[in-house]
């Protein structure tokens, strides 16, 4: 069993997933558009190029899915509230790199700093409205 986060965006999934791929050092393994599906004839013309499903792969077992909401009747985009994506990084350097990359154009809600539970911890809301918690564990 695997737990996977699935994000919905307001028409900018491709931009967000490209941003995350660069920030996290991941790769996009799928980018299916509404216009490429068997139901394409039922999708409004302005939504044909929107993303129905995208997959971002980080390492062997970390996956982030996403799609554009509001492209077909009955689906509306709702803001990213009530959750955060947490990342554990292997080193202070990687923690600082990921934090800087994800916070570009976003809002830092807690600056990256040493805490009683971590070598570094910080939180941010990225430029797409997604909340992130970045953590580098204390050495054991």
UniProtKB/TrEMBL annotation:
What Gene3D superfamilies does the annotation carry? 2,3-Dihydroxybiphenyl 1,2-Dioxygenase, domain 1
Q: Which domain of life is it from?
A: Bacteria
One of its Pfam families is 3-dmu-9_3-mt
PhnB-like domain sequence ranges: 2-134
PANTHER family in the cross-refs: PROTEIN YJDN, PROTEIN YJDN-RELATED
Q: Please give the name of this protein.
A: PhnB protein
Q: Which species does the entry assign this protein to?
A: Chiayiivirga flava
């Amino acid at each position: 069993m695997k737990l996977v986060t699935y994000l919905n965006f307001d028409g900018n999934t491709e931009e967000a997933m490209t941003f995350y791929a660069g920030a996290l050092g991941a790769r996009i393994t799928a980018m299916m558009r509404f216009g490429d599906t068997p139901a394409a004839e039922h999708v409004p013309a302005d939504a044909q190029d929107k993303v129905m499903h995208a997959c971002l792969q980080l390492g062997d077992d970390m996956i982030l899915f996403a799609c554009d909401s509001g492209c077909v009747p009955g689906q509306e985009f709702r803001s990213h509230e009530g959750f955060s994506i947490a990342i554990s990084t292997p080193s202070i350097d990687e923690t600082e790199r990921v934090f800087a990359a994800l916070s570009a154009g976003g809002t830092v809600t807690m600056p990256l700093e040493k805490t009683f539970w971590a070598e570094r911890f910080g939180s941010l809301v990225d430029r797409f409205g997604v909340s992130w918690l970045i953590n580098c564990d204390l050495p054991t």
